[in-house]
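Most newcomers find our protein records easier to grasp once they have seen one. Sequence and backbone structure share a record, each on its own labelled line. Nothing more is needed to start thinking about how sequence determines fold. As an example, a complete record with its sequence and its structure tokens follows.
=====
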Amino acid sequence: MQGFNKYYPPDFDPQKHGSLNAYRGKHALGDRARKLDQGILIVRFELPFNIWCGTCNNHIGMGVRYNAEKKKIGNYYSTPIYSFRCKCHLCDGWFEIQTDPKNTRYVVVSGARQKDEEWDPAENGGFAVHETDPNQGPVDPLAALEKSTDAQNYMNNVQIPRLEALQNLSDHYSADPYAHSLRVRKRFREQKKVDKAREEADERIKSTYGLPETLALTAEDEEMKAKAREQWEQARQALEERESAKRRRIGAEIAVMPSASTSKLLARSAPARASGSSGGDAVSALRAKILGNTAKQGASLASLGRMKPPDTRGVRALVKKA
């Protein structure tokens, strides 16, 4: 385990030495900075491509790491150009690789040769590296438009859906489960209260009208209310039609009943007329008046649509008194 404590000698003076590295005469980077006075820093460098060593002619695969001497040798505009000088691990030969900011790549300068494995970014959904040579001819506008259209389609069909999927996945894993649970339980409690109130209302209706306990009542909503209103209107119209037909039938029967009652009254009053001629005129007048009232009453009942037979008991009482 690496120790984090530092030993300060008795003769160490912070104002004089400043730090333990200055006291011991060493650099903070240690042995990596042994050539720092020459502008060289020892770094860990990994080969970006396959090469053949120029000294032993052996193949060195991409990804092999070396302790390379890193040195700044120039600039491309404001971008520095670095050189990496490595020693082959299979021989004593040295090879040098430099950065090429102009073409965004690495270049073998000496001591080795690169394996030709060119990769076209335009064929793999990327953008081609544009040349900055001033002597190059004009770019075809149709070809540039086609490349930009292909790049736009690739972004819309591949990149954007992938980014959205990654964003949804990130939201899923970074979401607070307690907040989701709290929201779901709150919604469940509210729905439970609504269901309980509806069950109580259904029980009151069933107990009021004596409905079976197993009868399932339909929940009230606008669609069911409209359907029930339509059925009520149809039932009301059918009831009015039946009542109208019944009134017409009763009116026709009442129109026939006064003539039959009149004939019966005349037959019963015949012995009374034979008993005396003095009271015959009064009885006839009274009979005519009763018949007229009976006819008026029958007409009023026919208009109201109610079936009430004429009151013949009063007529009989009057005839007997006469």
